[in-house]
Amino acid sequence: MPLFQKAVFHTTIADLRDLPADSLCEVAFAGRSNAGKSSAINTLANHSRLAFVSKTPGRTQHLNYFRLAEGKYFVDLPGYGFAKAPEEVRGQWEGLLAPYLQQRMVLCGLILIMDSRHPLTELDRQMLNWFAPTGKPIHVLLSKADKLTRQEQLLSLREVRAALRTLGENCSAQLFSSLKKTGITDAEAVLASWLGMERRLEVPPPTGLRSEKTARPKQRAAMGWGARKASGAGKRST
Ligand SMILES: Nc1nc2c(ncn2[C@@H]2O[C@H](COP(=O)(O)OP(=O)(O)O)[C@@H](O)[C@H]2O)c(=O)[nH]1
Ligand SMILES: [Mg+2]
Question: Region 166-195: what's the mean pLDDT?
Answer without folding.
Answer: 96
